[in-house]
Specification:
Length: 93
């Protein structure tokens, strides 16, 4: 069993409230969850209205497949929102 996990740090400077941020985060999470069949959630900085930290994980039987899933999700997140990806932490084990 191979587990791929990733934490994505993003900035959404146009968000002026936590309500604005929740709309962005909820959209990303719901769409990615259904499109890629991954576990995904906001994992940090919930009280900062311009910082978004999303973590996701996948389970597969090949390292290459886990890496592909992570890359596809990252590309999807980048295309589907105006938030800027600041940093990404990947781990496959």
């Amino acid at each position: 069993m191979i587990i791929g996990s990733c934490i994505v740090y993003m900035t959404a400077e146009w968000c002026s409230s936590l309500k604005d941020k929740r709309m962005v985060v909820k959209s990303i999470i719901e769409k990615a969850k259904h499109k890629f069949n991954i576990s995904i959630a906001e994992v940090d900085r919930q009280d900062n209205h311009q910082a978004i930290v999303i973590g996701f994980a996948c389970v597969t039987n090949e390292v290459r497949h886990a890496d592909e899933i992570i890359e596809n999700v990252l590309n999807y997140i980048e295309r589907s929102t105006d938030a800027v990806i600041d940093d990404v932490e990947r781990e496959i084990f």
